[in-house]
């Protein structure tokens, strides 16, 4: 396909298209771009403007209020914790998934894909019946006689972390798995035959080859965590509040100015994280791993 | 993996697999409870909560709205998304990197920000609590996945086929319909499916822009479960899991058909 005749065809095809004076394929994007400018870019600009309507009062309130500060810190902390736990669980799972064959591989893939295709809300409801006082975990432990009172598994930070980890885990597994499938497996036995201890062969030969998948997964899970709403709202109770939930609550109380200000803070944080992340991985690939 | 310690690795993978599966599987037995409150294990079983769904106009309306909005979103996001994907694959215009950021943006910006912005703009247009407003909002959220699915197909195309068609006198539209479209069809089908699922599952933006008179299924479920677990919502969840498993198998078959076609010699 890179042969000389094809290259010649390219150079002769160009002027033919240029004669019309317009790049036809670029024009094709115009309707969609206008749609997104009007209904995605403009709404976000409006949120920015709404937050500074009547001066910088909202930002002063944000900076001075200990309540909002606490929520911002808690959001960041839960997002970081969820990302780390997801990575610790996803890496061995993806490793096994990429090394076993046949039926077991299909089973492991289906276990990841069924949740991906199930709504966050439905899975949060599943977590609700798992964690609640009369739910599966507590009732099973009580019937076994391991506990006499239900454990406080729901309406706290633990429930939020547990639920978000469960929901975001596939987004960590899939990018790591897709990189592991392309790793050159013969390099590890090569390192072993040269006398490297197994842990060293793994850490210095195998793991570096999978880093792009790890970065994609970490970036995606962290960014999705920062803006997560459903799990904190259903499983968090009064504890485990995160910023997205505060935004919804402020908007419900008709405090759109303050809701917009928190939204801008969340947007700025997300943008910074993505800008740093995009230096290491292509953002299109990061989203491609979502489904 | 020959000399790496296998046993702990497999044990961790098994536990993670259980962790992934558990929240979906626990819903199945609980959805058949005969009791008003959810308790595990239920003392007696029945299909009363399924019946409750199929006999409640409120639930059925919500499901019908979701279906209508989902199909319209799939159609609109495909109509807008396919040309964008072709532009990104073919054009060399200097603004295309910006177009790329604009298109993938809705998948990375937290939905609550899209929601609050969309609410304001739709209020200006007086489209909140309306069908067109919901379709417009869901299309914004569906476009990134649709474009990426189509782009994956478009990148595998051989441009020389189109050039040959064009050199034989076919108009650009004819070239697109007869050579490009059949080749990217599997990507378009998967894209449309993604578009539908994005809309069907969407909660956060819908919470802002729907009202009591026009609710989607996720919004209706949300209203039932926000304070306490609700047996009807659990029954609906079980049906949705069954549905998503069917969708997954469909997507798997389409993808396999696509890779089969690639392997077939020309």
Protein architecture, described:
The complex is a heterodimer of chains A (291) and B (266). Chain A has 291 residues and is mainly alpha-helical. Helices cover 75% and strands 0% of the residues of chain A. Chain A has a single domain, classed as MetI-like (MetI-like fold, Orthogonal Bundle), CATH 1.10.3720. Chain A contains 16 helices and no strands. In chain A, helix 5 runs antiparallel to helix 6. Mean pLDDT of chain A is 86; it is low at 1-22. Chain B has 266 residues and is mostly helical. Chain B contains 12 helices and no strands. The longest helix of chain B has 34 residues, at 57-90. Chain B has a single domain (65-263), classed as MetI-like (MetI-like fold). The model of chain B has no long low-confidence stretch (mean pLDDT 88). In chain B, helix 3 (48-55) crosses helix 12, helix 7 (131-154) packs across helix 9 and helix 9 (172-201) runs antiparallel to helix 12. At the A-B interface, helix 1, helix 2, helix 3, helix 5 and helix 6 of A face helix 1, helix 4, helix 5, helix 6 and helix 7 of B.
Shape of chain B: globular
> Which class of secondary structure composition applies to the elements of chain B?
mainly alpha
The secondary structure category of chain A is mainly alpha
- Helix count of chain B? 12
Helical proportion of chain B, percent range: over 70%
Q: How many beta-strand runs of chain B?
A: 0
Compressed to H and E, one letter per element, the order of chain B equals: HHHHHHHHHHHH
CATH class of chain B: Mainly Alpha
Strand portion of chain A, in percent? Answer: under 5%
Residues in helices of chain A, as a percent range: over 70%
List the secondary-structure elements of chain A in sequence, H or E: HHHHHHHHHHHHHHHH
Determine the N-to-C terminus distance of chain A: 31 Å
Q: Please outline the major beta sheet of chain B.
A: none
Low-confidence stretches of chain B: none
Cα Rg of chain B: 23 Å
Low-pLDDT stretches of chain A: 1-22
């Amino acid at each position: 396909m890179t042969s000389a005749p094809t290259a010649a065809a390219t150079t002769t095809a160009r002027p033919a298209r240029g004669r019309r004076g317009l790049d036809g394929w670029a024009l094709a994007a115009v309707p969609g771009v206008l749609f997104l400018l009007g209904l995605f870019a403009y709404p976000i600009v409006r949120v920015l403007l709404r937050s500074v309507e009547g001066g910088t009062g909202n930002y002063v309130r944000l900076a001075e209020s200990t309540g909002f500060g606490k929520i911002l810190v808690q959001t960041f902390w839960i997002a970081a914790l969820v990302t780390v736990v997801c990575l610790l669980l996803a890496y061995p799972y993806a490793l096994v998934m990429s090394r076993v064959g046949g039926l077991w591989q299909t089973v492991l893939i289906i276990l990841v894909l069924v949740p991906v295709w199930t709504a966050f809300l439905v899975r949060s409801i599943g977590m609700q019946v798992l964690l609640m006082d009369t739910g599966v975990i507590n009732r099973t432990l009580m019937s076994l006689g391991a506990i006499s009172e239900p454990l406080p598994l729901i309406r706290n930070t633990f429930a939020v972390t547990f639920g978000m980890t469960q929901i975001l885990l596939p987004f960590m597994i899939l990018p790591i798995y897709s990189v592991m499938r392309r790793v050159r497996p013969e390099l590890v036995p090569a390192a072993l035959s040269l006398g490297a201890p197994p842990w060293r062969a793994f850490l210095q030969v195998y793991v570096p080859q999978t880093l792009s998948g790890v970065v994609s997964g970490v970036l995606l899970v962290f960014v999705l965590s920062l803006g997560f709403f459903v799990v904190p709202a259903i499983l968090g109770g009064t504890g485990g509040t995160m910023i997205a939930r505060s935004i919804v609550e402020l908007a419900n109380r008709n405090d759109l100015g303050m809701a917009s200000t928190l939204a801008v803070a969340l947007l700025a944080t997300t943008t910074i994280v993505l800008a740093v992340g995009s230096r290491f991985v292509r953002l299109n690939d990061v989203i491609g791993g979502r489904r | 993996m020959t000399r790496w310690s296998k046993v702990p690795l497999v044990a961790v993978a098994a536990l993670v697999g259980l962790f992934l599966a558990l929240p979906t599987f626990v819903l199945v037995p609980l959805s058949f409870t005969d009791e008003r409150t959810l308790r595990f294990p239920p003392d007696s079983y029945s299909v009363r909560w399924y019946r409750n769904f199929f006999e409640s106009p409120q639930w059925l309306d919500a499901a019908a709205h979701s279906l209508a909005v989902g199909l319209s979103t799939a159609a609109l996001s495909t109509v807008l998304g396919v040309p964008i994907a072709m532009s990104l694959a073919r054009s060399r215009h200097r603004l295309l990197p910006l177009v790329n950021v604009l298109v993938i943006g809705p998948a990375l910006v937290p939905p609550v920000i899209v929601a609050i912005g969309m609410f304001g703009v739709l209020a200006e247009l007086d489209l909140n609590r309306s069908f067109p407003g919901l379709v417009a909002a869901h299309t914004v959220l569906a476009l990134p996945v649709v474009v990426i699915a189509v782009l994956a197909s478009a990148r595998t195309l051989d441009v020389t086929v189109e050039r040959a068609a064009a050199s034989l006198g076919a108009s650009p539209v004819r070239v697109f319909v007869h050579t490009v479209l059949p080749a990217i069809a599997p990507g378009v089908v998967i894209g449309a499916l993604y578009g539908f699922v994005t809309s069907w599952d969407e909660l956060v933006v819908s919470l802002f822009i729907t009202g009591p008179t026009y609710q989607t299924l996720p919004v209706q479920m949300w209203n039932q479960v926000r304070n306490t677990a609700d047996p009807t919502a659990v029954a609906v969840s079980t049906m949705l899991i069954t549905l998503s498993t069917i969708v997954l198998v469909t997507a798997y078959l389409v993808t396999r058909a696509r890779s089969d076609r690639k392997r077939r010699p020309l």
